Amino acid sequence: MTKSRFSPLHADGHQMTAQAFKSALIQGALALLFAPVAHAAPTITAAITQRVHPVLIRNDHNELLELVVKVRGGDPPALRTLTCSLDGVGVLHLELLADNKPIAMPVKPSSKITFAANHPLREGDNVFTLSGTLKPDGSLSGQIAASCSTLNTSAGPVTIQAPPPVRRRIGVALRKHNDDGVHTYRIPAMTATPKGTLLTVYDMRRRMSRDLQEDIDIGLSRSTDGGRTWESPRVIMDMGEYGGLPQEQNGCSDPGIIVDPKTGEIFVFAVWMNGKPGKHQWRDDGSEPGYEIGKAAQMMLVRSRDDGRTWSRPENLTRKLKKEAWWLLAPSPQAGISLPKGTLIMPVEGRDEKGTGFATIMTSNDHGGTWSVATPAYSGGNECQAAQLSDGSIMLNIRNGRQGYRAVMVTSDLGRTWRAHSTHGNTLIEPPANGSLYRIDHDGKPLLLFANPRSQKARSHHTLQVSLDDGRTWPEKHHLLLDESRGRGYPSITRIDAEHIGIVYEGSRADFTFERIRIATLLRKD
């Protein structure tokens, strides 16, 4: 039987030889191998997120907005252009960053800005930041808002989901990490002198961010133009190598400041530890009963009689003020107040004969010549600040680590006796951290201002609040969120002039942020 034989045909119907057939197969395979592959187009979305925080003079980079470009599937394209809008003054230049690195040339500010970039996108989230640098002589009264409208990629245009832009307040990075060779600045307290000079005192933590015991001096920053510019820091308390011990065993911390409006004299108190490496004055035997240097932490004082330009040598007030049985007496790191008849009130804190923390005040009726410590107002708290209420009584607002709410006590006899306020332990929340209480009189009415990290979870949501009824209520419509991100938390408020208050706080953008705020803004009358 004859076997049939397969004979491939050419396109014209003629039979192909075996060699020709083999060649055609190879050519077809190569064509398939090197033919362009059709890929599915990637899915690209873009959305703007904006957190509430200030933009700061002296910061090299200020985040104005964050753009997240999500790429899913297909070949990731490249970002070609991004067009943004800017509303506000005082910006020196703008940058577009990816992974904190510039990806386009800096541009001068205008109402509309287009960045040209050939930046490859990757699968997943691509995060871009619009960053601005402010003019060093810029105004603290303005606000800045930014948004993005058009995103073009090598795969085509992408619609940006953009909520209404956040209007950012302008402030000053008063102190930053490693300024003047100091590792960390902490614990600010601010006040104003009769001449209108703003004074902020603080810890200069030279080697690391940790608290006592460490190499810490008390520093001062001074402004004579309402906080727009600040002089270089002055060291106003440094215990050197007392007792032959190194600087890191002679730290000073937690400054409190008060000005006598009648004499203009300024007093800064701080706590000094000698020896005890690795200890802390608030824990165990970091400070002990008695008065002995090297065992008990010491209450120190420096004075200025020339508007904060020069300062006296440190005086030790421990034996004059501290009860021998107490484990500690220290200033509260805040500003004191003066009553209309001249009594000076300085908030203080300590550890009683059982080692338990307490908060109270000390007073002077002779322009700071002598001081008297009152009865402890609250056991279990520590850092505090005082303000006078409409009826002449004194409110003490206290850090309270036990409940998630501020402790609030009131005295009508300069601290001989105390009673709980109606908001004690139930109204003002905290994480905990230091807070600031300050009274102003505006349009003939007394107002209480309160600032702290308004959270029970973390030192975030740094907020100013206003009470129109001696602290009984704090209406939400008078809350001003300054910085929602996490910082170290400590704020201090003072009055600048008839229309403005100033606040310094440990926010998320610098060791210390200073802001100048219109009182009308707090009252929602702008």
Structure write-up:
There is one protein chain. The protein has 526 residues and is mostly beta strands. It folds into 2 domains: 124 residues, Immunoglobulin-like, CATH 2.60.40; 353 residues, Neuraminidase. The chain is 5% helix and 44% strand. The strands form 7 sheets. Strands 2, 4, 7, 9, 10, 12, 35, 36 and 37 form a 9-stranded mixed sheet that branches. A 6-stranded mixed sheet has the order 6-5-8-3-1-11, with no helix packed on it. The chain is elongated, with a radius of gyration of 32 Å. 44% of the residues are buried.
Q: Which characteristics define this entry?
A:
526 residues, mainly beta, Neuraminidase, 9-stranded mixed sheet, 6-stranded mixed sheet, 5% helix, disordered N terminus
Short account of what is shown:
The protein is 5% helix and 44% strand. The chain has helices spanning 18-34, 318-321, 519-522; strands at residues 43-49, 55-57, 62-72, 78-87, 91-98, 101-102, 112-120, 124-134, 143-153, 156-158, 160-161, 168-175, 184-192, 198-205, 216-223, 234-237, 252-259, 266-272, 298-304, 315-316, 328-331, 337-338, 344-351, 357-364, 372-373, 378-379, 381-388, 394-400, 407-411, 419-420, 436-442, 445-453, 462-467, 480-483, 491-495, 500-505, 512-518.
Q: Strand percentage, roughly? A: 35-45%
Tell me the number of helical segments per DSSP (H or I, 4 or more residues long).
Answer: 3
Q: Could you report the average pLDDT, rounded to the nearest whole number?
A: 93
- The CATH architecture of the largest domain is 6 Propeller
Q: Which topology of the largest domain does CATH recognise? A: Neuraminidase
Give me the count of strands: 37
- What low-confidence regions span 5 or more consecutive residues with pLDDT below 50? 1-14
Taken from the alpha-carbon principal axes, the silhouette is elongated
